[in-house]
Write a structure and sequence with these properties.
Layout lengths: L3 E6 L2 E6 L4 E7 L2 H25 L5 H15 L5 H31 L6 H24 E7 L5
Antiparallel strand pairs: 1-2, 3-4
Amino acid sequence: MYNEIIAPVRGFRCLYNLKNNKVKKTLFKSPTFFWMVLLVLTGLLFWDLFLTINFSDLSGLMPVTIEVVLLSLIFNRHEYAKIGIIIWAVIFLIAVPGLKLLNNLYQNVVDGIGNIETQYVLNTATLVLVGVLILIYTRKTVKITEKKNVNLG
């Protein structure tokens, strides 16, 4: 059994193990990948904010909130940043656009192959490809490390 306490660190709350006095942090082994993830997240954040404000669609606040939380996890190197990136990539960059792409392709087959919107198909396929690349590189280059001798006081 571990004795755990919740203690504030830089405005964030982390779980500390009092027995070993350790804190877990996310380590990005590739600075290029770190900045690419930040670039993609920030770009999507601004795009979602633009769509939410211009079309007065409150359903756009959910992706905005998720992207802000994920950006704060990444900037603080929180231990849940890796799993957050993986979940975000799988849901918002692979599953949802992939299902939309399959739906569009199915509709095109039903309506006739001459009605294919190539720009939509290329944009969506690119988004799915970016999601797969982010997922692969996150699993390979992002590690969770433990720091010892953290001052709890």
